[in-house]
Design brief:
This protein is mostly beta strands. Helices cover 7% and strands 46% of the residues.
């Protein structure tokens, strides 16, 4: 055993015992270290500041009176909130957190601690502890985490000479103390309200602030600002903006005298408003009327039409048009009382006479039409232009022959213009049983071709050889026709089946087939168990990229709104909602993700551990940590048969809501096949981990370097209890020369030791031992605290000058845990003198 190595089984954290052991092994060096180590000075700040999301280094340094620093007598430990998080001993670094690392240089007296991508949870008291035998110094450092705020102005709409509220959201800041001011041309405003700050999942805070003002005409040219002061900022943060002036809508109902059981169109005219987004609904008493149709007249005028047939039950009820707009604090209500006359009895005789006359007229007309049809067979019959939603127009031409025919289209705006513009069209031909043809010609959509708030005319011209001249059909718009250009959006939320913590996820809200390109999309979050919706703004956690609508061949638009989210475990059960508004809609369209399923992939805490217990059995142990949900199952197999073996699992919940599982499999130490089993385990050690699909692991994924093929993972690792050959010790006593080496750390107690010699000038080693000259021995094995064995192997002989001068010796060890033996050798021994340590080659 080398003099500098401690006894087997010494706990790694028992630094004092380690140094005392070294002191006893070499008193002279230990005394020198003791004298020089009495003066140890530690330098570290009392506080240190870090910005959330950055990499931070906490400084700590030390000096001694008599450098250089001997790392054999040096121990460095870092503690957080009283728990050890990192230790350094003999240049070996052990960290209990993957974000925490040692970036100091012990030989230069630096013991700095580094934390990557720091979060709020890492703020608190750290302790740097330096042990330099036998002196120990410690210092506490308070790490303050700060996060700078972001300002989002959410409401700038005002009405002149009327109280209006400006609103903002300040998000992503830490600590909680913050100062918010509102300014008008650098003048600080009064009537500011700041709500109670709310804690976000990442530990930062968000707060809403508002200010009430009465804007004047002069305020149109003034700059308004929201200014924030926070300890994370070197200078105040300020967001400037101008007011958006809105106009309150004027509402008027147009109707006629009500007649019992006679339909009439009720029109609610809403005009003079800004911005364009507005909601108009009809109510009968307190019941919403679903069939009303809203059409836009211009950017500042709409009308809602409801076709109403009064009944006896409706008599005396109240019709109301309810308008909701951003400039209104409460919806505007315009009312109309249902009252009128019943004309049914008065007109019964008149109705009968009119019906008889109609029958007579229809009969005459039918006879005439049939007559003309037969006479003018094969002449094109040009129908009237029909209008379809979306700005499409169609024209039918029936029963013509021959087939050749031309239908051309033009649009004229205004109708008095002398410069018509051609419109592309598509004809669809059909042959009748009598050999004649029909054609339907459909124009392309007029969306984007005309001014939708001005009158226009559409003209179709038909050319055919049976016609003496061009046949024209014309259609003219009126004030109500612009509604046909509107196209209601279709909204689809592209759902993500599984969300993974700290892995950015992109939500897509796809809106198609809408016109005009006046779309508003907002994102909201509904937390688990709560009814209130949280308006999502672009910040560090949520990103809403700017995108443009895409024009489609049918002249409608398509738009995909993106929301990039980095989920946390607190998002479990929450919903993300996409809300869409458009001029073609009477209300809003919402799509939701439904309750979110948030997952955390397991991480391997350490390789499989293979300690030996007091009974001489091997206990294989493996841990996975920080996974969610809890559902997980571990099954062990090993050897060529891959037979499943029983195991024990312990699952515990972590403070952050994730789980840790530790699985153990005991292999009896007294099995008859232990030598064979050792080699099987050493070369093919299996851990088959069955997990529920909700854990998110898929085929071929790696978790902390362990591959997961299908439902399990497989890897090869060295056994921790393979034998180790220590340094040689050579003794000369009474003419006998003895070479000894310590063999340690092996299990089970099944060891074979062989000795070999190579003389000077020879090419090969030859076995020696247990003859007239050489004697070998292996001491009785000793059980160590970790339940492995150690022993001492020796070779004794009487050296001769002619045979043994400059000879080399090998100690070769074979054990069931190894397929190949291990060995150590001496250099050529030149002299056989006093006791010494042999040189190892």
């Amino acid at each position: 055993m080398a003099a500098s190595e401690p006894p087997r089984g010494l706990p790694p954290d028992d630094r004092v015992d380690l140094y005392l052991f070294r002191f006893m092994q070499n008193p002279a060096e230990g005394l020198s270290r003791l004298q020089r180590g009495l003066s140890l000075q530690l330098t570290a700040p009392s506080t240190h500041r870090a910005i959330m999301g950055e990499d931070v280094t906490i400084p700590c340094s030390f000096t001694i009176d008599n450098p250089p620093i001997d790392q054999k007598f040096l121990g460095i430990s870092w503690y957080f909130q009283g728990n050890e998080i990192l230790s350094v001993q003999n240049a070996n670094v052990r960290s209990r957190d993957p974000r925490i690392s040692y970036t100091g240089r012990a030989e230069n007296g630096t013991a700095d601690l580094s934390i990557s991508d720091i979060t709020i949870t890492y703020g608190g008291i750290y302790r740097c502890a330096i042990l330099y035998t036998p002196k120990k110094e410690e210092k506490e450092i308070r790490l303050d985490i700060q996060a700078p705020p972001q300002i989002t102005i959410t409401e700038t709409l005002v009405v002149k000479n009327r109280e209006s509220v400006l609103r903002s959201v300040i998000s992503g800041f830490y600590p909680v103390d913050i100062d918010i001011k509102w300014l008008r041309d650098r003048e600080i405003l009064a009537n500011v309200i700041m709500e109670i700050p709310q804690r976000d999942p990442d530990g930062t805070y968000s707060v809403r602030s508002s200010v009430t003002i009465t804007p004047t005409e002069e305020d149109r040219e003034r700059i308004f600002s929201c200014r924030v002061q926070h300890e994370s900022l070197t200078a105040p943060l300020q967001e400037d903006f101008r007011l958006v002036y809105g106009e309150i809508p004027n509402v008027q109902i147009t109707s006629q005298t009500f007649e019992l059981d006679v339909e009439q169109s009720l029109v609610c005219n809403v005009s003079g408003f800004y911005p364009e987004s507005i909601t108009v609904n009809w109510f009968l008493n307190d019941t919403l009327l679903e069939n009303a149709k809203l059409q836009r007249i211009s950017s500042s005028a709409v009308e809602s039409v409801y076709h109403f047939i009064p009944t006896e039950q409706n008599w005396g009820m109240e019709l109301s048009c309810v308008v909701d707009h951003a400039t209104l604090t409460t919806p505007h209500v315009e009312r109309l009382l249902v009252q009128g006359i019943d004309l049914r009895a008065k007109h019964k005789t008149s109705v009968a006479i009119v019906a008889a006359l109609l029958i007579l007229v229809l009969g005459t007309v039918t006879f005439y039409v049939l007559y003309k049809k037969e006479r003018k067979k094969s002449f094109p019959k040009v129908r009237e232009i029909t209008r379809s939603p979306g700005g499409l127009f169609s024209l039918d031409v029936d029963h013509f022959y021959p087939e050749a025919i031309t239908v051309s289209w033009e649009v004229i705006q205004p109708p008095s213009s002398t410069q018509p513009r051609p419109i592309d069209s598509t004809p669809v031909m059909h042959q009748n049983q009598d050999g004649t043809f029909n054609v339907t010609s459909t124009s392309e959509s007029l969306r984007g071709m005309i001014w939708e708030d001005e009158p226009y005319a559409v003209r179709a011209s038909v050319t055919h050889q049976k016609l003496k001249r061009l046949s024209h059909k014309e259609w003219k718009s009126d004030d109500k026709d612009n509604r046909d250009f509107l196209a209601q959006p279709e909204v689809e939320m592209i759902k993500i089946p599984k969300w993974f913590v700290n892995q950015q996820t992109q939500l897509q809200c796809r809106i198609t087939h809408f016109y005009p390109d006046q779309l508003t999309v907002n994102w909201f979050k509904k937390e688990n168990g709560k009814e209130d919706l949280i308006y999502i703004v672009d910040n560090e956690r949520y990103k809403i990229p700017n995108r443009k609508s895409q024009l489609q061949p049918d002249k409608t638009f398509t738009y995909t709104s993106l929301l990039e989210v980095t989920p946390s475990l607190e998002d479990r059960g929450s919903e993300i909602i996409c809300r869409v508004s458009h001029p073609s809609l009477e209300g809003l369209i919402e799509r939701t993700t439904g309750p979110l399923q948030v997952l955390v992939k397991p991480k391997a805490q350490h390789p499989i551990q293979l300690p030996i217990n007091d009974s001489g059995d091997m206990v294989a142990s493996f841990s996975l940590f920080s996974f969610y949900p809890e559902d997980i199952k571990v099954t062990w197999t090993y050897g060529p048969t891959q037979e499943k073996k029983p195991s024990q699992e312990t699952i515990s919940e972590n403070p952050d809501g994730t789980f840790t599982v530790t699985s153990q499999r005991t292999i009896p130490g007294n099995t008859k096949d232990w030598p064979k089993l050792c080699i099987e385990i050493a070369n093919t050690l299996w851990g088959l981990i069955h997990i529920s699909p909700s854990s998110g692991l898929t085929k071929g994924e790696r978790v902390s370097g362990v591959r997961w093929p299908g439902i399990g993972y497989h890897f090869v690792q060295d056994l921790p209890w393979r034998p180790h050959i220590g340094d040689f010790t050579c003794l000369l006593l009474d003419g006998k020369y003895e070479i000894m080496c310590e063999i340690s750390g092996y299990f089970p107690d099944d060891l074979t030791v062989s000795w070999y010699k190579k003389n000077e000038g020879a090419d090969d080693f030859v076995p020696v031992g247990n003859d007239n000259k050489y004697q070998t021995a292996v001491s009785e094995p000793q059980i160590q605290p970790d339940h492995t064995y150690s022993c001492t192997a020796s070779l004794m002989f009487t050296p001769t000058l002619t045979e043994d001068q400059r000879s080399e010796f090998i100690c070769r060890v074979q054990h069931p845990s190894m397929e190949e033996p291990i060995e150590r050798r001496t250099d050529a021994i030149k002299e056989y003198t006093q006791p010494s340590v042999c040189i190892i080659s």
